[in-house]
Design brief:
Elements: E1 2-6, E2 13-18, H1 24-29, E3 37-42, H2 43-55, E4 62-66, H3 75-87, E5 95-100, H4 102-114, E6 120-125, H5 128-134, E7 142-144, E8 147-151, E9 159-163, H6 172-189, H7 192-199, H8 201-205, H9 209-229, H10 244-253, H11 260-277, H12 283-295, H13 308-317, E10 321-322, E11 325-326, E12 328-331, E13 337-340, H14 345-352
The structure holds nicotinamide-adenine-dinucleotide (NAD) and zinc ion.
Length: about 350
């Protein structure tokens, strides 16, 4: 089993990665025999894998579920779950265990960060996306009608357990969506990882636990290092937003019809086009990244038309606006992210053509 540590002083925590890693939850819970444990799981994941998780936890651990999908990152879902915590008398010493994809992590993490002003938190991600990205770093939150992730807190987990066996049931589409975040990590931080996606494509598709474990560990190491250097996104952590300024706008404007990772892939295509047009990114590097995303089966075009004015408006409500300017993390080359805040509307409009529907 691989262990990656997120070095955050007295809030440092390990990420356990591998086949049967879920059993490490048993060791973690032994020192706290009387601690209240509450699993917050998406219903699909609870149905598929709940018994395996329960077997690794003390018998009195409670499980609460919510409907799978992005629409559960809402005040409505949160309120329902918190009312259940109240009914069950969940106290300050409790720990909440997120069980599912990035939606479970963001929703359960926000609850863990705010229930009684904050209780313990553990992440047990079951999607590839949550394993390589969302479960690490302590960002939690929910969406508003106005936009994604607008309400949330930083709340670090005390443990992350990534059991690659859970990924056996993950639909291909969700596996591909998660690969988009792995490609993002490669292009901002470790370009040699880019080709590894292609070299391992068959083993990844076959859910080979060793290949998945190694790729997840490489991604967690990248994210852990960035988070340890800049937990609250004052500076370096912003590089993780590559592809996300446009990606979040697409996600929101398409009514969450596409997966987060799919929108990030489209967002990277547009943002690389912006960088290419500015002379920051070489055409052949942009083409190479686009080719990897295409080989991994990620979308190349929007499923339907999205108005440029709507994209601009959605970018402006995103958290990446600072001092009134929309922030982009563009590539000035592979492994060289740069922050750019002076992109004109016309540049965005022009770059959007690269993913235009039906083109
Ligand atoms: N907090 C962060 O740092 C961070 C980072 C990246 C993404 N995110 C957020 O994560 C979310 C996307 O996460 P996601 O792609 O995991 O979506 P998700 O949680 O909705 O999971 C996708 C689908 O896969 C199903 N599923 C999960 N595990 C499964 C399994 N093992 N077998 C079968 N089905 C399974 C779920 O029920 C769901 O239908 C977005 O809301 C995004 O904003 C957060
Ligand atoms: Zn993301």
């Amino acid at each position: 089993m691989d262990v990656v540590r997120v070095e955050l002083g007295d809030r440092a925590y390990p990420i356990h990665i591998g086949s049967s890693a879920v059993n490490s939850l048993r060791e973690w819970s032994v020192p706290f025999p009387r601690r209240q444990l509450v699993v917050i799981a998406d219903q699909t994941v609870a149905d598929l894998h709940g018994p395996r998780l329960a077997a690794a936890l003390p018998p009195d651990a409670v499980t609460l579920t919510f409907p799978a999908g992005e629409t559960s990152k809402s005040f409505t879902a949160m309120e329902r779950l918190c009312e259940q915590l109240a009914t069950r008398g969940i106290e300050r010493g409790a720990a909440i265990i997120a069980f599912g994809g990035g939606v479970a992590g963001d929703l359960a993490g926000f609850i863990a960060g705010t229930w009684l002003r904050g209780v313990g938190f553990v992440q047990v991600p079951t999607t590839f996306l949550a394993a390589v990205d969302a479960s690490v770093g302590g960002k939690t939150g929910i969406n508003l009608h106005a936009g994604k992730n607008l309400v949330g807190v930083f709340h670090q987990p005390e443990l992350v357990v990534i059991d690659t066996d859970f990924l056996a049931t993950l639909p291909d589409r969700d596996l591909r969506a998660g690969l988009a975040e792995s490609v993002k990590h490669a292009v901002i931080r470790q370009p040699d990882l880019l080709d590894r996606h292609l070299a391992d494509i068959a083993r990844i598709a076959a859910r080979d636990p060793q290949t998945l474990g190694e790729l997840i560990a490489a991604n967690c190491a990248i994210k852990a290092a960035v988070v340890a250097a800049d937990e609250r996104e004052a500076d370096l952590r912003m590089i993780l937003n590559h592809g996300h300024t446009i990606g979040h706008a697409f996600e929101h404007l398409l009514g969450y019809e596409l997966r987060h990772g799919e929108c990030v892939a489209l967002g990277m295509l547009v943002e690389n086009e912006l960088a290419r047009r500015r002379g920051l990114l070489k055409s052949n590097d942009a083409a190479r990244i686009a080719a990897v995303l295409a080989r991994l089966g990620l979308p190349q075009r929007l499923p339907r038309a999205v108005g440029a004015a709507d994209v601009l408006a959605a970018c402006r409500i995103d958290k990446k606006v600072r001092a009134g300017a929309v922030n982009f993390v563009l590539l000035a080359g592979l492994g060289q992210p740069v922050r750019v805040a002076d992109i004109a509307d016309a540049e965005i409009e022009a770059a959007l053509a690269i993913v235009a529907a039906g083109g």
